[in-house]
Amino acid sequence: MSLGELFKKYIGEVTYGAIDGLVTTFAVIAGSVGAGFSRNIIIILALANVVADGFSMSVGCYFSTKNGKRSRGKDFDEHAALRKATATYVSFITFGMMPVLVYIVNWPCPFVHASVITGTLFLLIGSWKSLADKGAPPFKQAVNTFVFGAIACLISYGLGDLLQRVIVK
């Protein structure tokens, strides 16, 4: 099976993993920047998030597939569920690592670069969501994904900043 065929077969899992990996990891980075954490702390928190949250998502995908099949009275295919979980995990890790790499390679202005990369990836992921949601315009999907991702990240940054001011006083 070609990479394109795999992508189409697991578009739901790939999309879900990519969006969640990007949102949660960048939210950790944004909250950490808002709180004034150092680059090293940001890397530690973001990497811990990518690995643990990605694993959690893939386990959730596996059990959701398993329980969904059984609740509909269908036979459960262990290998199919594991492939879906793997697609979710690989997508989560791949996209979740993108904003962290800016900090790891120590680019100047890492938060600005991570923000641009994250925003661009939200637009890309949103546009390919239209493949799974037949008939949905790619541009609309791209903008929706970007807006909701940006809102989550702004909340995280603002909360990090607020909590830093309240706790550190």
Structural class assignment = mainly alpha
Q: Gyration radius, to the nearest Å?
A: 17 Å
Q: So what's the overall shape?
A: globular
Distance between the termini: 58 Å
Report on this model:
- The structure is a single chain.
- With 169 residues, the protein is mostly helical.
- It has 6 helices and no strands.
- The protein starts with a helix and ends with a helix.
- The model has no long low-confidence stretch (mean pLDDT 89).
What's this model, at a glance?
This protein has about 170 residues and is an all-alpha fold. The protein is about 85% helix and about 0% strand.
List the helices and strands and how they pair.
Elements: H1 3-9, H2 11-34, H3 39-71, H4 78-104, H5 110-132, H6 138-168
Helix pairs in contact: 2-3, 2-4, 2-5, 2-6, 3-4, 4-5, 5-6
Key features of this structure:
mainly alpha, 169 residues
